[in-house]
Amino acid sequence: MKKIIALAVAAVVAAPAMADLTIGGSTELNLAAESNAAGTHSVETNVQVTAMSESETGMYVKAFAELELLEDANSNVDIDDNYLEIGAAAANVSFGERAAAVAWKGGDDSFAATTSMGYGFTGKKLDSIAAVDTIVNITAVEGLTLQVAGNLSDNADGTGVYAGYSMGGFGFAANIVNGSDEDGYAVSGTAGMGGATVSVSYAKAENKDSGLAVTAAMGAVDVTIARMKDDATGNAETVYYGRYNLGNMGVEGFNVDVGAGSGTDAETRVGAELTYTF
What distance in Å separates the CA atoms of residue 25 and residue 100, rounded to the nearest whole number? Predict the structure, then answer.
């Protein structure tokens, strides 16, 4: 028995160092009510697993996976992200399921009201390719991020190019999407001063749909007004929404947001978002 224990100890001592492993997640409860409609609630839990190893030269390998658990019994398990990233300080490349960079800045739309056109049909489609399997990031220049995203799979298409630059409270971003159902471009500019931040975003799809959003944030408050237009029919809608952060209520890892939203041809929506991060 002593010999077996000695061999086990020797094996542990001789084993190579394991990667830095982090397991965490969050659970989010959304409560909402719209005029002329019954109140709703939803619960979503996301569990993230990250493993990373780095060499003395700065080269690293990182694995990330996120499991999404939904309240809906029909589709209660999903995988949000699942990728392998290899790189260094100046550049990296990732393979697997991962969203591309975002140029459109529409604020926290958790409390955006339901509209007949569907809020964000422009910006949300153009700010990134929804699912790509290869992303290259170049970050060699301070404040500048360049990204090329696409699919190596034979049964998928779509390419996205993103550029973002920030310095001293000011930032600019743009991206172009081509060869997918989300063809078009989006641009945005952000300025911060005295604790307040204002962002302006514009997006236009190849099918002539367009969107414009202005978001202002200061401290615990942020508000957004956005206008979507279908240039083919001339139909347009304006939505506005905002939130107020109540903080953690004295409980570590807990956070509470309350907010409301409305707009043209939209019901007024009020709600609360409770999040616990572990």
Answer: 21
Reported as a single tens digit per residue, the pLDDT across 16-49 is 456 799 999 999 999 988 877 777 888 999 999 9
Q: Which of 241, 257, 273 is nearest to 115 (CA)?
A: 241
DSSP 8-state code for residue 10: H
Structure tokens at 163: 């550029």
Q: Cα-flanking dihedrals φ and ψ of residue 3, to 5°? A: -65, -40
Size (the chain), residues: 278
Record the pTM: 0.82
Beta bridge partner(s), residue 270: 33, 260
Q: Which residue has the tokens 């490349």?
A: 93
Instruction: Identify the structural domains of the chain with CATH numbers, from first to last.
Output: 2-277 (2.40.160.10)
- Strands in 101-234 per DSSP E: 132-138, 144-150, 159-167, 170-178, 184-193, 196-205, 209-218, 221-230
